[in-house]
Design brief:
With 105 residues, the chain is of the alpha/beta class. The chain is built from four helices and five strands. A five-stranded parallel beta sheet has the order 2-1-3-4-5, sandwiched between helices. Helix 2 runs parallel beside helix 3. The chain is globular, with a radius of gyration of 12 Å. It starts with a strand and ends with a strand. The mean pLDDT is 91.
Length: 105
């Protein structure tokens, strides 16, 4: 089963994505900030197939989360999601190996 880690400081986003992705057959783990997300990722030991992370979060921001995840496992897919999207953030996330950059509606 594909395991997805969702990292976002907005509880509503976590809940909606969790419900939707679980109903589609994925195993979903959620974290409310970058620090918690990285701790979960490290404990899973490469068992996470996809990470969906927000950019603007307390503790550790999403681009740093992306950078650290790729340093641990370069093959893990990471999608960066933001409500504060700009071209510089998109370019930087792709430079660090993000699979995609998506603006929140």
């Amino acid at each position: 089963m594909t395991k997805i880690l969702i990292i976002d400081d907005e509880r509503a986003i976590l809940e909606v994505l969790d419900i939707y992705l679980t109903s589609e057959g994925y195993e979903v783990i959620t974290a409310e900030n970058g620090k918690e997300g990285l701790e979960i990722f490290e404990k899973q030991g490469g068992g996470i197939n996809l990470v969906i992370t927000d950019i603007k979060m307390p503790e550790i921001e999403g681009l740093e989360v992306l950078r650290r995840i790729k340093a641990i496992d370069k093959d893990t897919e990471v999608i960066v999601v933001t409500g504060h999207g700009d071209m510089d953030s998109a370019i930087e996330s792709l430079k660090y190996g993000a699979s995609d950059f998506i603006n929140k509606p």
